[in-house]
């Protein structure tokens, strides 16, 4: 990332060593843990240098206001947290670009005629507490506050306790209509997480839609026992059963055109080399082109997984953990943004299979997204990438939009 150090993306270079994960590779930046706290301090300092006033809302989202906070504000931003072992661009690119757009506007002597803020959402990836877009769901009332307070991380710490340690009052977590009412329009710039722009040979797109998606926990139960004393024919091993269930997940997804289903996280209980497990938790991420198609896929997976684990004398229970219906970004807004940015031939409108805070906000306030080309097409991995020239094209686009809106 050294070529970023002195350019418009200096912000990315400044945080390039924060939250590096030597074991997994890439970055692990999780809500209110060391790296996330450092990134929050970095954001406050960076925004302060631009004369923005930074506030933390009741749910841990950071707002940096240019001028007085107010209604009908144009708000742009993204998130600073990451998946475990994630890339450098997913989230931070949108935050850095928003700050850079402000710096450019200020340098040109521009004075906004509407309130403006840069917004950093908390726990977008759900890597610590399991629910993606937690900060935007809390802000908009998209998750029940009591349920949210009771969420636990891998160490058994509740969101309520973690919030308290971070200086928030957990009683105030939840829907924040006053904060939300200030947003007149939200724009999230984001690295593309697929190959759409690569295939089209363009650097920047406007988002058209987001696949329906959700997370489910599959708990496979068998019988814990001794690895040496238990004959192979006498076992009810839930880890072998979970392996069959995971193959069933893949097979069912392949039967549903365009659908995606992933098990990327397992917890083996109790988890000893010489112990046949007693249960296994497997987290399913499932996505498809419509809400109904996603529900159908998960029903088919549930049936196939039940049959698969029965082969090993085990059972499986499926629990829904989060859900986001299909998001269609306002076609009028998409059309207007494409026109302002040079027309449909230059600025494609692209769907995505990745979830975003802009998708959560879209149910409450006008929202839009810009995508920046990712030449690897890879994301949620250290291979995620964006060329400096494309990032600059993204900031150019954001600046043009802001000038037209402010
Ligand atoms: O999981 C998602 O789609 C997003 O990147 N949080
Ligand atoms: Mn992500
Ligand atoms: Mn993201």
Structural write-up:
The structure is a single chain. The chain is α/β, with parallel strands linked by helices. It has two domains: 290 residues, Aminopeptidase (3-Layer(aba) Sandwich), CATH 3.40.630.10; 112 residues, Alpha-Beta Plaits (2-Layer Sandwich), CATH 3.30.70. Helices cover 34% and strands 23% of the residues. The chain is built from 13 helices and 15 strands. Strands 1, 2, 3, 4, 5, 6, 13, 14 and 15 form a nine-stranded mixed sheet that branches. A hairpin with a 5-residue loop joins strand 1 and strand 2. Helix 3 crosses helix 13 and helix 9 packs antiparallel against helix 10. The radius of gyration is 22 Å and the shape is globular. It comes from Cryobacterium breve. This is Allantoate amidohydrolase. Keywords: Hydrolase.
